[in-house]
Amino acid sequence: MMRGAFDDVPLTVLFPLLTPADVDSLHQAAGMVDTVRVGRAAADWEWVLEHAAFPGMQPGTPVVLGLDVIEHSEGGDQLEFLLQVVWIGPGRLAVDAAVNVACWCETDHATHDVDALRLVVGEKNSLPGAFRVGAERLAGWLADPHDADYWRTKAGLPSRRIG
After folding, report:
1. How far apart are the C-alpha atoms of 118 and 96, rounded to whole Å?
2. Residues 94/119, Cβ–Cβ less than 8 Å
3. Which of 30, 62, 70, 161 is least enclosed by beta carbons within 10 angstroms?
4. Where are the alpha helices (DSSP H) in the chain?
5. All residues at 6 or more sequence positions from 156 whose CB lies less than 8 Å from its CB, including other chains
């Protein structure tokens, strides 16, 4: 896995069918995320060159490109914002975006997606279009409260136990 600024991502290696306009669109969408992060650490994108081609069915979701913004708070609480381009089958990509919180349920589920979006790339969604929608959603989430209990309440999950 490699990491860096979005400008460092070898987009045409990861997605060989992209046109120059597609590449520009992906850069503009990633720029929306950077805009809401002004005054914070720069977004650290991750990509896996070995996943440029479908890696076959394997445990876990083969992530091609992604951003994972983690907010930690007191008491071991965690809030995570994700934007990923993933393989969902041979020749089938999807763009996933999610807000994820640490679990405080009686049964420890580890984490919960409290808001999630999956756009399958294909006839209805181009990769640049799906990525733009995911980036817009991520930018909106990053502008919202960075309090995991806010998101748990919104999803009807138990709040963190303090003490």
Report:
1. 5
2. yes
3. 161
4. 11-14, 20-36, 127-143, 148-155
5. none
Q: Cβ atoms within 10 A of the Cβ of 133, count?
A: 16
- In the three-class reduction of DSSP (H, G, I as helix; E, B as strand; rest coil), residue 86 is classed as strand
- Report the amino acid identity of residue 129: G
User: pLDDT (tens digit, 9 = 90+) per residue, 56-88?
Assistant: 766 667 899 999 988 876 666 788 999 999 999
The tokens for 79 are 């809030």
CA distance readout (Å), 159 to 54, 111, 154: 39, 13, 11
Q: What is the pTM of this model?
A: 0.89
Dihedral sign computed on CA atoms, order 157, 105, 75, 159: positive
CA distance 95 to 6: 16
Q: Would you say 101 and 111 are in contact if contact means Cβ atoms under 8 Å apart?
A: yes
**CA angle, 94 as apex, 90 and 99 as ends, to 5°?**
140
